[in-house]
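We now fix the convention by which a protein and its fold are recorded. Think of the row as the fold of the chain written in a discrete alphabet. Here is one such record, which you should read through line by line.
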Amino acid sequence: MERELWKAVYPGLQKVARRFEQRYVQIHSWRVAAVLLWGALHDRPVCWACDARNWTTTRLKPDRLPSPATVSRRAQKTSFALFFSALANELKGTGPPAWELIVDGKPLPVGKCFKDPDAKPSPCGLGYKLRALWGTKSMPDVWEVTAARENESAVAVRLLTPVRGTGFLYVDGSYEDNRVYDAAGASGYLLLANPGTQATGGTRVPEPVPVARPAPVRRRVRMEAIPAPHAHRARVR
């Protein structure tokens, strides 16, 4: 799987590198990005990805690898942030958001000796959390890495703010919040949430969830699991 993913990522990496000209640097940003992506793809640290012995499984690799210290220093530069953002846009592609979107998160835990003050304790442990708004593209439409303890609904609102489309937004119970409903409606999406511990309640009616709408729907609907495979009920507020 790692080889197949790398074959899809590396051409985009080189394509973006040809558009970025950097003077007075010995290591171009694309080499730093290649090392970070290679390590992340194999779930290994930066020092592992900087070792040429760990690149023997592929021919798609930089001719010169940076040192771990160089990667750490260059990854904090504005020029690298611009390059990485352009790479993400290249891999994501163009086009409007999908008809069906999902908001979800993935914990990124760190060790107890980690000193970053942003990695505060949370129910899922010490570290960070990736939150992403994802459709049918190879990259998330919008994403953030924040402290793991940051409120899910607040992050979801930020993710939805730049999105404009039409369709359905699927979330779990932790995102069922009035602010998220409002943000989804403003973006043109009908929020559908699985029952969770933060359910908002409402009046239960046996109305089926619509499959398509000619215009954005702004009603608040909450899905409820029913044993029948094709039966649906909704809670509407």
Notes: The radius of gyration is 21 Å. The chain has two domains: 2-92, 100-236. The longest strand covers residues 100-109. The helical segments are 2-19, 29-41, 46-49, 68-74, 78-92, 152-160, 178-186.
